[in-house]
Amino acid sequence: MTQNKIICKEISELEDIAKKLLADYPDRRIFAFYGKMGVGKTTFIKALCKTLGVVNITNSPSYSIVNEYTGKEGNTIYHFDFYRIKNINEVFDIGYEDYFFSNNYCFIEWPEKIKDLLPDDSIKIYIKENPLDNSRIIKIQ
Q1: Phi/psi at 13 (5° precision)
Q2: Which of 39, 60, 119, 132 is paired with 109 by a 20 to 30 Å CA distance?
Q3: pLDDT the model gives residue 1
């Protein structure tokens, strides 16, 4: 993105933000989402999945750790939620390398729990709530 800070005032804006994000990083596949509980990480990932043509239900894989979706071109999209992992061995046990290095999209919630395993070229997305107007401040690095 030409700017690395976006103000999202309405949830309806997320689809356009998702399209721009994917267009600005066409060769990147790992997107790490940082932010407090309830700030909108899953909602943003749903917009990204919709943009990629996912028609099945997208929700947070809180208990399964990873959900797998199929995009419009038959491509696989992985959605991770590492909030509930107790130790890094759980991530090794699910075979994270097979996902992260598959060249498929990987959208990761709570990446700070696996910071040493994130590929260096991951796109980091920080979401904060603006308490003045309930908008979201999205910073992309």
Answers
A1: -80, -15
A2: 132
A3: 39
Query: The domain spanning residue 61 has which CATH number?
Result: 3.40.50.300
Instruction: Tell me the pTM.
Output: 0.93
Sequence-ordered list of residues with C-beta below 8 angstroms from that of 31, at least 6 positions apart, any chain: 21, 48, 105, 106, 107, 108, 122, 123, 125
Beta bridge partners of 140: 125
| Mean pLDDT of all residues in 111-134 | 96
Structurally, the chain folds into a number of domains equal to 1
| Rounded Cα–Cα distance for residues 129 and 123 (Å) | 20
- Domain assignment of residue 100, given as a range: 5-140
- pLDDT given for residue 22 in this prediction: 96
The answer to whether 94 touches 120, Cβ cutoff 8 Å, is no
Contacts for 113 with CB less than 8 Å, ≥ 6 apart: 82, 83, 85
